[in-house]
Fold these 2 entries.
Entry 1:
Amino acid sequence: MMTTMLDPLLQGFAAIGTWSSLGWIVLGVFIGYTVGAIPGMGKGIATAISIPLTFYLSPIAAISYLIGIAKGSTAGSAVSAILINTPGEPSSAPTALDGYPLARQGKAGKALRMGLYASVIGDLVSTIVLIGLAAPLARYALAIGPVEQFAILLFSLTFIGALASDSMVKGLMSGVLGILLATVGLEIETAVPRFVFGQLELYEGLSVIPLAIGMMATSEMVMQISRHREIDAQTARVREVKVSDDRLTLEDWRVSGPAILRGTGIGVFIGILPGLGASVASFMSYGVTKKLSKTPERFGKGAIEGVAAAESADNAVIPASFIPLFALGIPGSVIAAILIAAFMIQGLTPGPLLFQQDAALVYGIYAAMIVASLVLLCVGLVGQRFFSRIVTVRVRLIVPVVLFFCMFGTLVQGGSTFAVWMMIAFTIVGFLFKKLGYSFVTFLIGFILGPSLELTLRQSLPLLNYDMANLTGHPIAIVFIALAALTAAIVALRARKDAAARAITLTQTSREELQ
Amino acid sequence: MNKMDFVSGAMLMAFGFLLLFVVIPWQIADPSRALISPRLMPQLCAVAIIVLALAQCIKALREREVESVRFRREELIALAGVVALFVGALLLFRLTGPLPPAILVLLLPMLALGERRMLVLLLLPATCISLVYVLLYVFAGTSIS
């Protein structure tokens, strides 16, 4: 078992052992770390903007570069959380709870280092779990038919829709809108054009690049522009915080070690489940560590293990979220969905078949992920002072650069101005999604999974003789359909309870105000 | 009542009906040879949109408005600005090629957001444009034209 996994992995290391591949990994991690350190900029924006460039790279260099960006930006978001109490991403919010107090106590260097070590450990362990789990799961996935595949896809979308958004209805709506958008273009069986409105460019369907860039990057820039004074005021505060050079002690490691291991476990578990995301993992890990601590009163005032718990979980989510991607072709996170786009650009379809058709590539990606973890450590340690300065960059300099790369990236990948018009349209849609509370994650995943969902539905209907009663011959499908219904029911009941609790609180508040 | 959720739900429901009864029959032919109609998936999506939008409206009606989502003036100005910037850059692109719109996309937001340092106004566009030139034209061997 070990040899069967080690040999291809060693071949994977050989495949990425070129200056070019290593250079792309280092560049990806560096860019990711830099972007992650900028308040309000996250891994989604960084990877979305970078996709067009990967069009011209070899598959392994392209995927490695994007994975480097994802890993780097996840770790980098801790920098702004610790130094200026403004997380680069929501998942780094618990890092700020103890990281910022540490920085105020003159221990910013200690917090940044612990954050980095915890990130690297979480990330590396999670990558090893991915390597161990994805291939056996993929073998199992290959044995199942279209009916079961359809049920699994339906379950995944329901699960993501129900949990990735504050409102289940809005989450599911986002997923359905994504699936609907995926139907644009020529239909697979009959070649009948759908929703093309006479536009030749739409016959091939909508490209994921303008969609992802418009909804993630440019719409986020709109929000940043509208709050630029407020954000600049926050970044100006960093000048009050000096990054000290205090080192981590054995005592720091003693208290943080268990927190890192626990955080990694939580991150891996949450990462495997589609749709929950890194924020859930980091908050959960922080909460559990605080609860298990003998001195919970230290939390929120500068407990180093709080930083370790949050960062290890945050970073463990990324590689673990690739397990359903590699094993089943189901993206469980925004990064995994964007990675699918990069695979598609390279003419590859991630999923169980990839292990059969291009195993060398899969193991090359695994090797690149391990290398990226180690590069992350080096880049983080060497560039600590540089990244600490990055958080002071003003919005008025970030926004034009991001908009420029969004426009020219889309232009290059799309090959025509039509893609940029699409990007503009999705900027407006993305803005509305943000303001109205619809889930972009579910929308993107719905868009990515839409064609597979339709294909498996088309294959399933004749197999079932167009009679749902024949589902009884497919127990796995029944289990997943039941799980989808159960997830929806549980989330709906919980939302109802929360709404009732809110109503009681509101009534009490109103009474108190009246009195 | 949560007004914003109700309005967005009602609009989505109207969109669902429009899709089901107007856009799908207009935009997707239904060939008789097809075992499964190419309209099936879009129709399923339209029905799902209507049902979910109805659920959203009912939920919004039952809810007490705690904190209404508001479109702030600054956000709408920013959105209009970004859209206008891209539209202007695209129109310019058709007339002049890539360099002038590149400068426009970099300079205009900097000025609008308050950057006045001449060195930064010169260096940032020069660096970004050079980087894209090296990455896309020289390194990747592509072109924007």
Entry 2:
Amino acid sequence: MIKLDYEHRQAGHCESGVTSNLLNYHKFSISEPMAFGIGTGLFFSYLPFLKMQHAPVTSFRVWPGMIFNRATKALGITTKISRFRNPDESMLALNEALLKGFPVGLQVGTYHLPFFPPEYRMHYNMHNMVAYGFEGKNYFISDTVIEQRVGISYEDLKRVRFAKGPFAPSGRMYYPVQVPAGIDIRPAIIKGIKKTAHNMSGVPFPLIGAKGIRYLSKELRKWPRKLGEEKAAYYLGQVLRMEEEIGTAGAGFRFLYGAFLNEAADVLNKDWLRDLSMEMGENANRWRKFSYLGSKNCKKRAKPEESYDLLADILLECADHEEKIFRKLSKIDK
Amino acid sequence: MEENKEDLIYRNNRELFYSFDPVTKTYVSNIGYQYQANQVIIKQGWDALEERVNEFREKVKLGTLSPLAYYMEKHQMEVPMLAGYCGFPKRKIRKHLTPEGFKKITRADLEIYAKVFDISVDALLSPVF
């Protein structure tokens, strides 16, 4: 048995929370927004040709694993990241890492996660949590979504680590091995901002970044006529679930990113970053307004003036603001 | 935005949320239940699932779909995912979704399906609706 002295802290998003908490364990104090920003967590893509849960895919985030990988790489931290074919081997590797004294980040599916609230028990394979020990066949888990520390059995853990379907985790586990002394986070912040700024305003493809938000706006305007009220409401609901549900910290990660810019302004001593952080916060509130009014449409309690046209207009405003913000951010090192 | 705790649908777990106060121009994080407006859209997803499961149940009763199709939908799965969990080819599963194909499933395969859905083989063969 082993039980590491790991601090359980809730977070807005699972992967940035896990990254921040794992590094904190290694005496490198970094906030969740900072881990999110350096890890380039923010994104937008609308992929109408891909359907998930019977509706087009809208994503506000990068691929699973990217935040931890990019953040640790940019900070010069040595890590160990593994995937497995054989479930029993993956559990053995987990035990070994824990016995060596490393808390371990795990990518898991949420459908069979016993301690998860029932309303979130969907086939979502991009969830992250930390194992910080085990006693016999029971593992000690810190999950940033859950208020308290939790436990999970060997069999259940094996099952969620090998969940099947899109983004199957394949037992992926990851942890920092060595954190060098005297890390300068400034270059990492600049690198992270540049990457996200490029993703949001510089990709010449209509479904990505601010352009993607505009594309979604155009489509969304047509939904009621094209699909009928029922299906339109379901499609809209799917966009809102991706934006506001579990692990986005609200407004499709926009609050988290704004908080990062705010911190970055302090660290880099750049006042213009603070201004952009405020704009980002206001834009996040705009996204919240979109989801708030949108939910009324889903409930069919929207007034006519709160219809899809209005929602599409709000999205256009979000796109315009984000394009402006990220264009400015892309010039950070000039 | 309005918040009335009594109107909340889900109160199983409190999460951490960030927000931005435009007046004081500060970012804050707080721990609480998911916003009411968001709970509505979460419920919409579950209601849509329930509706689909009901449709599948009727089709099983009418004999146009097999019980396997019903359980697959109930567990929010599609053929590729179920194939992943069972280790079967997709073609084989598609066959088992029809009442005719379902009759020909071997005992061993039934046991594999039952294990994926956490049910007994009896429940898989004749679901209690």
